[in-house]
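Let us work through a complete example step by step.
Step 1: write down the sequence.
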Amino acid sequence: MIKIAVDCFGGDRSPYANIEGAINALKEIQDLYIILVGDEAAINSELSKYEYDKERIEVLHASEVITCNDTPTDAIRRKKDSSLVKAFDLLRNEDDVRGLVSIGSTGAILAGCVMKVGRIPGVKRPACCPILPTMNDGIVAICDSGANVDCQPEYLQQFAIMGSLYLNKAYNIENPRVALLNVGVEEEKGNALSKETFQLLKNNTPTVNFVGNMESRDLLTGEYDLIVCDGFNGNVLLKSTEGACLELMKLLKKTFTSSFKNKMGALLLKKGIYELKDKMDYNNYGGAVVLGIKKTVVKGHGSSKATSVYNCVKQAYNMEKNNLCETIAIEIAKLNEQMEANE
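Step 2: predict the structure and record it as tokens.
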């Protein structure tokens, strides 16, 4: 039985979306056990609306909530009875609690990962790794998307290893194609960080299927499985892509409703339009995992619906079912041994 803690009071739709998503995952996955963390009365009131296996779910009371207005590090230290901190305490102190899902404050989650759980030995920096849909019905991951604004080449080398293992263990992608985010595809392009990282991935990381540089315009083409970058550029890449897709959908809606003729065309294309909308909806792809820490943490979008929470729980389950953290520890140890031998 794999136990996953769910922070029920993170996000814009708490606790409703958190609870519904967790229960939907519980119904689908037979060896899953859920611990819902937050205000006990509110959680139990919401639970009364559902039918579920009461032997595989429990509630842990927490009287406080960490919001996006709280300073992340201070909130982790001071709000000890918050749903997020108590979930992190479970993760740290209980061996059989294997993962945590939250759609709360990104800063507080990252602070909790470091302060409460800690890094896997040998990992230089943990990294956020979200998923986006591609144009060929696949997915592409970005590692890092914001946890590390300033990076060294060795950090990005580890991001490539951890991200590749994640895609393999959580999504069953064999030999993921890894690209380095850059301003051009040529080997000599980029700044000092890009050039040095390119050589590390090309010549000193045999466990990674490195396919070269990628320009940001090619993110969603389906030609790559994992994009490696520092957290500053990764965050810009992620948000600019999400923003462009959202504005495109708004433009399509405006165009299709601008005239009677266009409305008739939209009716004929209705099925395809909804399929496109679903394809671009982040709720259908779960959240960003935090790679490089000792246990599994998945951070969902703050405005996540129940579908997104459900997918976040499935992500956490798949990672733990396939021993991702242990595999990362083994591969990072091998890398560090190799680097010491080459010195």
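Step 3: interpret the result. Residues 2 and 32 are 5 Å apart (CA to CA).
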